[in-house]
Amino acid sequence: MRRNLIKPMKLRFLAIGVVWASMTMLVQGEWATFTYSSGFQNGGVIPDNSQVGWADTRQVSGLTGEILDVNVGLQLSGGWNGDLYSWLVHSTGFAVLLNRVGGTGVNPPGYGDAGMSMMLDDQGEKGDIHWYGGGFIPTTTAWPTVPDGAPTPSDNWKPDGRYVDPIDGDVGVAPRTALLSSFNGLNPNGDWTLFIADVAAGETSTLTSWTLNIQTAAVPEPASLVQGAVVVLLMGGVMGGYRLRGQKRRFHSH
Predict the structure, then answer these.
(1) Please, are residues 34 and 149 in contact by the beta-carbon 8 Å criterion?
(2) Residue 49 and residue 151: Cα distance in Å, rounded?
(3) Strand, coil or helix: what is 67?
(4) pLDDT in tens, 170-194
């Protein structure tokens, strides 16, 4: 008799699982890639020793659903990498991409390498870009994307994320709080602004291109949610009735 009680519950959970899986399929997203390599203010040259910095605003349109993930590619030439402070803003989202890489309390100037070409990704397996190590140009060999638009996580760096003054203090010990995940759940369409400042004198960096990789997740239509709920309720009613009949049979058998 125990099997009659357990089986309906298993079937009910199975039905709910099927509905949940079908609803999950509705929110699977796709990657869109936008690369900008021209039309830059000042030809992409970052003003030296200026906290006013340099900015480039681009408008994204035509995407549906909400943001599931964002990655950013930067290609810079020349300069002193440890001088650079960079952030990305869109709607209510804000992420610090670079904050004087290599900078510490005993080495405020940071790494003296010139230029970089890499993708920044919250899940980047190369690690925190702040500690990429001096003596070479940080790169991503598969930059910017694989053919379907999705970045290669194992070949990406994590953004700096340190939302602190790049001039004062030990940047390296600051917590990483301003990450790319701040854009998750937002509407991808609208203005995206990349800001870069060279906050120390001596060298000049130039941005040659930057890339936005945006993954969107389609929001299920209300009708789909209602249909899913109805199916769950119907299956629950059927299983409940089956269980009740089983209980009646046991009662009369006594």
Answers:
(1) no
(2) 33
(3) strand
(4) 999 999 999 999 999 999 999 999 9
